[in-house]
Amino acid sequence: MEFHRTRRLLLPLVLGVLAGLLAGCGASTIPAVHSEPERLAQGRRALEQHEYNVALELLKSYVQNNAGGADVDQAIELLGESHLRIKEWGEAQSQFERLLRDYPESDSAAAASFRLGEALWGQSRGPDLDQEYTQKALEQWESYLRAYPEHWQNVEAGKRRRAARERLADKLDRAGRLYLKLRRAGPARVYFQRVLDEYPETSFAPNANLGLALAEAQAGKRDEAMVAMRDLETRFAGQAVALRAAKELARLERHPPKKK
Q1: Residue 155 clears pLDDT 60, i.e. is over it
Q2: What span, in angstroms and rounded, lies between the C-alpha atoms of 253 and 131?
Q3: CA 50/CA 7 separation, integer angstroms
Q4: Residue 106 — left, alpha, or beta (φ > 0 → left; ψ -120 to 50 → alpha)?
Q5: What is the per-residue pLDDT for 23?
Q6: What angle do CA 26, 27, 28 make, to 5 degrees?
Q7: Other CB atoms closer than 10 Å to residue 179's CB: what's the count?
Q8: More confident residue, 29 or 139
Q9: How many beta carbons lie within 10 A of that of residue 181, not counting itself?
């Protein structure tokens, strides 16, 4: 009896909580719209308030209803931004590409160009995996910087560009180190040289120099390898790569080549 009475007392409380939750969910329902300009304004407001599903519904409708409208380019940019916020990278990419293709003179084009890089970067993978989208994101940010050199997101695009170049250099460096482990000096040399040729400003360039020296040592070019390691000790004194070069140099000196 006590259990049933407690359940009867709790039931109204539970129902009240559920009603409150449903009312809160109702705050994210699609608002009433009486005109197309209002639809666009409501979509922008929903995006600003992080109500992304609402923003998507309103903006999709606006774009469909106003294909030739004066503000459709803004709606497409906001639609892409809404997809971007919820990490729907491919959908965001499609919207930004559409804006840049169909409305290249739009005031929204610069922002769309930058955001397209973000949508591509979102689809990229870590340095152990294929770097197709990292390369695409890099090329997009470089295109954006060339086309819109005065845009307010240039500084951030520069940071993203450097991050992409670091990842691509990392990929090559990993391949070079793998070939060193396999004692295949030729392919290792190719990958380390690519780091130096294509990404000389990255943090992987010093490691690539050491990798080249190690590849030379594996290929039997001991003297050339030792000269390169001493140079690394001097150029990068106090840094990790200099310490590694010193360690490898000492190892070579402890094991002189056998006399023929």
Answers
A1: yes
A2: 39
A3: 38
A4: beta
A5: 35
A6: 90
A7: 21
A8: 139
A9: 8
What does the DSSP 8-state code read for residue 183?
T
* DSSP H stretches of helix in the chain: 2-26, 36-48, 52-65, 72-85, 89-102, 109-122, 132-147, 154-181, 185-198, 205-218, 222-235, 240-254
Q: What residues contact residue 217 under an 8 Å CB cut-off, 6+ apart? A: 225, 226, 248, 252
Q: Which residues contact 230 (CB under 8 A, 6 or more apart)?
A: 245, 249
The rounded distance, in Å, linking the Cα atoms of 212 and 226 is: 11
Residue 140, pLDDT score: 98
Collapsed DSSP state (helix, strand, coil) of residue 203: coil
**pTM for this entry:** 0.85
For residue 109, the tally of other CB atoms under 10 A from its CB is: 20
Q: Give phi and psi for 222, each to the nearest 5.
A: -65, -45
Q: How far apart are CA 67 and CA 156, in angstroms?
A: 32
Q: CA–CA distance from 178 to each of 175, 191, 210, 218, 222 (Å)? A: 5, 10, 14, 14, 20
To which residue do tokens 């450097």 refer?
A: 162
